[in-house]
């Protein structure tokens, strides 16, 4: 559960840092934070919104509250109650039932399809289609918030791709050039071996717990050109037992048992692997491209240590697994509440993407509050917008941009592949065990593990 | 009418007022949920819409889940190991300690100390002790005598024994204190009687002490089984059920159903199955304590 | 108490025996005291263990016993005290020392500021207070329910006493964790009231009150109080409330002490339930927060946080040691 919580946590941070993400293809300048909602029958409505920064982040919190005030001025009939709620998969349903879930709440791509299928998030197609940029979303991003019939259940506000994070200091200690990160999986393995030998730290580590094991195995599979599910949500075929996943596991097995280059801890989750990396105990690991934000704010990493590159892609269909954040609306919200919630998302999240002033103001606040600005993200609309937004806030960047260059220069050339559409968390949970088995049992039978996992998930998907 | 008056006169109202706290808390937080558990296990709910009746589907789900038997096996294994480590040690300690004429208070205090350490603290601390590198705390200590390094919780075969070791550390003290109290009640005449026949120390332990403790031994045994079947914090915080589900217990499964995958129906169904088993154990326990107190 | 029990209250079978009422207490107390006194003098003839005086005179036994005693002492210190002493050491060491030489004594000096950092930056202060608050409320409701309930069932004894006692007793057969999910749903939507207790301390306090063990413990104790005292008070015109407040409660202090201590300690140790019903971080007690803190602070500060979280329970234990040891052993089922 940590994994989910935290993974989402990052997405959240990204959303905060989203001065980066460009948007709104139309380029029409009107701050789309539509006053349009004000027309018609503007009955008074109160909504609560998630992700108010906690009191420990004073600057960010004040900025958030200031935006709330501004919003209320523009929409006199809407009252906004900011809430510190942050997504947590383990308590989500409870908060929904217990009435403590805000009207508009943020959640990760991974859980999008499950929430839609369980009827735990509202259909906001009509409201979203009113937005001027409704047609400009990157289709593969929009896909995450749509059901099979094309109805829309949320607004994607930030996206990231998985990257390879590495410790430049350990690279140097091991005699490797930190400006020349590995380009292929063979090189990853080789570098890991050298780092382990020369520094005694884990050359390469991977998350395995709380669904992150499956998440990372899926990432690795995508990078080698395989898929975990084929077909749409309605008629899905589980393909866990595929040659690429097998190859991925064989590689992990070799690194663990032949090279002994993966350290001693094989029960990392999202929080603990970040902590260990920030503490200099890990040479390389895979994680969301936005993890740097949390490495700074939560784990106090030394910025000089940090390096980020893209995952090596290998094979015809190879792609990078993407993720991100969505804002959705409570399923029991009234029409007026839904409308107000979408207006809020439009104003708070989207205007920053469309409007230079909003982007700059946001970046200013982030810098003041000591939060990172400039961590790489992926486009929600298209690449040009992203470049545009990055330009707007270029003066405010406070992250070691050069050390992230290998990633930034190449990520847009990598095909982005969404997470498995059906029961992603359950699939990940099943694969946690597979990855753990390979890393903790030398004689693990990869073939058999995959067959079993495939059968189990097929049964689950069928049952759902 | 008369009855009512009599009821009021005899203090019926104050009795009722005094009973309210008990009736309300038990009604809401014990009796109702227990009844509701039965109902819920035949329903599907997403906590938002009205629950729907789905017959035995929840039970099909849990029994069809490959992790069901894994978790049952793990839980039984945990219980078995906990008995293996945790059952004799407190007994031996207590029998020894009861012979000491000096410092019994100090010994008892030392033995009981781990029991008061909050489980979360203990588990997180031991999680660190179990660091599998050569500089891990336990591996360093064992390294002094040329053992290890061991993989502890990083290996499917060692993970469960490691959890049990920690749990035993955290709980054995309480059992020691129980046995100590029980030992004081072993009647002196019994020892005197066999000594007349020239019984040795081992004979006395085997034929007097242990038989005299048999009831308390049975009770702690049952209580331990009941407790170990509800093991949660250790695997949850130490291994997350890994590696490769080697430490996924029944309660962890219940938790995962409910709070990781949002399947409250399956979670309740599994709870109910566990509850039936534990109720049987409790009934045995209850009979044991009763038969003892009346004997 | 028993091995591996997560919910001491529920599994304190013998707790009943603590309920030895004043009328019987002298005997039991003397018993215990005499037991402890064996340390100092030759024991009274009926107070003996396996070894007879004759056994003790044999050199082999004497030495064997001495060696055993030394071994047990060393073993207990290493096993029980060791981890806590190590934690105390590590809490004021640097992260690198703890990682590289976990058993060396401060190779790079003592780092006291870990404690302050944990208390302030990691916000242990807030979570500490939350925990105190959780424990206080749980204590109050447990005591309230146990005294009023026990009093009605033991002293007032209305007609349905048997039925009610049975209903309370029955809940003992259903271990708390098993009703986890239904109880959780009850808290989400309290029937008839239609409110949600989620993210409020009531969600922890009120279910804590429904503790059958406490009720039965107190009932049993009050059952054994001399009834002629109650009759005398009634004749003097004392109603049920006055009887409770001025007669029964003062006589029940020992048992209330026992219930209180275990209520507080249990609340301090509880993890799963507050984890579920208090998703709001600002409200969470230490147990729930520590695993999260681990991921966000450096190791030295984390270990300092662990140490701080343990100090209060250990202090309570040391202060009320005798009460613990007498009742944890819980005269228990043995004499119940």
From TrEMBL, chain A:
Pfam families: SBP_bac_8. Residues 45-54 have a biased composition (Polar residues). Residues 28-58 are annotated as: Disordered. InterPro entries: Bact_solute-bd_prot1 (IPR050490), SBP (IPR006059). This is Sugar ABC transporter substrate-binding protein.
From TrEMBL, chain C:
GO terms for biological process: transmembrane transport. Keywords: Cell membrane, Membrane, Transmembrane, Transmembrane helix, Transport. Residues 1-44 are annotated as: Disordered. It is found in: Cell membrane. Residues 30-40 have a biased composition (Basic residues). Its main location: membrane. Residues 1-12 have a biased composition (Basic and acidic residues). It comes from the Bacteria. GO terms for cellular component: plasma membrane. PROSITE patterns: ABC_TM1. It is a multi-pass membrane protein. Residues 128-320 form the ABC transmembrane type-1 domain. The chain crosses the membrane at residues 67-88, 139-156, 163-188, 200-222, 243-268, 301-320. CDD domains: TM_PBP2. Gene3D superfamilies: MetI-like. Belongs to the binding-protein-dependent transport system permease family. This is Carbohydrate ABC transporter permease.
